[in-house]
């Protein structure tokens, strides 16, 4: 983290009570939660969506793919285009766009209209995610920056594991359109909360294209982003189609799927907080454990999926491992690119969302042309490849002076940002 950015955090928080500062942080958490929930929502609704719109489950999966691709483009683009626009105004406007997109999704008469709505949602998603972390450090004193970042990114991790079961259960109680109406109401409330809770947040400086381009020279960051891409593509290639797998291969009744995915979500929340306690110190090691666990559980589900009880147990373990990915990968990014956090945050959001889109797309093609267990084998293979890649990259000790990312991490820790351990890169 730059000295300028760190010094500005207390200044921005000056004159605001601790309660007002944390309400502002929580409004950002609400934003990250609701945009991620919107992105994940179709995963548990592919079967009823496909039936209602008269398309295959693979085609319905394009609602995940297209939003992710749009978000991946918007994440690095919007900070460049926004210039010095007040970030409070920008975030509230983006959440209003998200609310409108969810409403249009709920009312969509065809797959084409639904996909157009998801494009609009993707623009809002990419912009919010790219800006959230860099704004959190301006809302609280420097000594509280670590907690603020954890709170903001807890929204992403929690939504990643809760949105699918919640949407599935709402879709079962009412229908899939009701799930999107609920998302529209949530995002509208968050837009209001951002407008009321955030202080004025004028841009400290504009992000320039050369700053984004310069990230390619950061070797540890490049390795981390490739690891993240392979892991997330593998996860979503498999997880996007977990509902039809559980129904058709495991023989689990449709009425129980929502309950099982809720259990998956609860396991993921546990994994999120368990990983968060150690990822700030040893992000690389935590990512290796998480990636290995995901590879093993996806392969195990493919092998044991025909036995319902075994499938349930493996599914819960999968949730634990994936639940820690968001917070751990963000800790790795902060450790390796602390002096360019807004640009690195935009890159992180772009890679993560592009990987979600590519994973859903790849899984759809496999699901439409091969038996359903094949999507799990594909996911396991990609996760294993990611682990090998990161394991072969040598670790860099934070205080050793090797690598700009490690040096920046050390500066960030001394300034009050989340601490990083001896294996950040």
Automatic annotation (TrEMBL):
Ranges of biased composition (kind: Low complexity)? 397-417
Pfam annotation, one family: MFS_1
UniProt topology in membrane: Multi-pass membrane protein
Positions of transmembrane segments: 21-41, 61-82, 89-109, 115-137, 149-170, 176-198, 219-239, 251-274, 286-304, 310-332, 344-362, 374-392
- Residues of the region (Disordered) are 397-425
- Read off the SUPFAM superfamilies from this record: MFS general substrate transporter
Keywords on record: Cell membrane, Membrane, Transmembrane, Transmembrane helix
All copies of domain Major facilitator superfamily (MFS) profile, residue ranges: 23-397
Please name the InterPro entries in this protein's record.
MFS, MFS_dom, MFS_Efflux_Transporters, MFS_trans_sf
Q: Where in the cell is it found?
A: Cell membrane
Name of the protein described by the UniProt record? MFS transporter
Provenance organism: Streptomyces tubbatahanensis
């Amino acid at each position: 983290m730059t000295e300028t950015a760190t010094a500005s955090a207390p200044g921005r928080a000056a004159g605001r009570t601790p309660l007002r500062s944390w309400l502002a942080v929580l409004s950002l958490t609400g934003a990250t939660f609701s945009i991620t929930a919107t992105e994940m929502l179709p995963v548990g609704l592919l079967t009823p969506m496909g039936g209602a719109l008269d398309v295959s489950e693979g085609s319905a999966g394009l609602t995940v793919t297209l939003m992710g691709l749009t978000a991946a483009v918007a994440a690095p683009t919007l900070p460049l285009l926004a210039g010095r626009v007040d970030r409070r105004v920008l975030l509230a406007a983006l959440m209003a766009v998200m609310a409108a997109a969810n409403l249009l999704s709920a009312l969509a008469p065809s797959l084409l209209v639904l996909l157009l709505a998801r494009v609009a949602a993707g623009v809002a998603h990419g912009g919010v995610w790219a800006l959230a972390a860099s704004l959190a450090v301006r809302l609280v004193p420097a000594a509280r920056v670590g907690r603020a970042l954890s709170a903001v990114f807890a929204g992403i991790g929690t939504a990643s594991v809760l949105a699918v079961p919640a949407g599935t259960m709402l879709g079962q109680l009412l229908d899939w359109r009701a799930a999107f109406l609920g998302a529209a109401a949530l995002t509208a409330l968050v837009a209001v909360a951002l407008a009321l809770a955030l202080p004025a947040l004028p841009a400290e400086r504009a992000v320039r294209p050369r700053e984004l381009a310069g990230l390619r020279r950061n070797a540890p960051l490049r390795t981390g982003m490739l690891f993240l891409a392979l892991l997330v593509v593998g996860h979503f290639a498999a997880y996007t189609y977990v509902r039809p797998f559980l129904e058709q291969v495991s023989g689990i009744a449709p009425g129980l799927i929502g309950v099982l995915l809720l259990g998956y979500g609860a396991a993921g929340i546990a994994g999120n907080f368990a990983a968060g306690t150690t990822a700030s110190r040893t992000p690389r090691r935590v990512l290796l454990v998480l990636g290995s666990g995901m590879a093993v559980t996806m392969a195990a589900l493919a092998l044991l999926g025909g036995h319902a009880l075994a499938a349930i147990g493996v599914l819960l373990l999968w949730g634990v491992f994936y639940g820690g990915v968001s917070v751990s990968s963000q800790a790795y990014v902060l450790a390796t690119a602390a002096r360019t956090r807004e640009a690195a945050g935009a890159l992180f959001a772009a890679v993560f969302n592009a990987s979600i889109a590519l994973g859903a797309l790849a899984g759809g093609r496999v699901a439409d042309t091969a038996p359903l267990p094949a999507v799990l084998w594909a996911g396991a293979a990609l996760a294993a490849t990611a682990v090998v890649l990161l394991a072969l990259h040598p670790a860099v000790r934070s205080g050793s002076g090797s690598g700009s990312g490690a040096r920046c991490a050390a500066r960030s820790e001394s300034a009050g940002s989340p601490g990083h351990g001896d294996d950040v890169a």
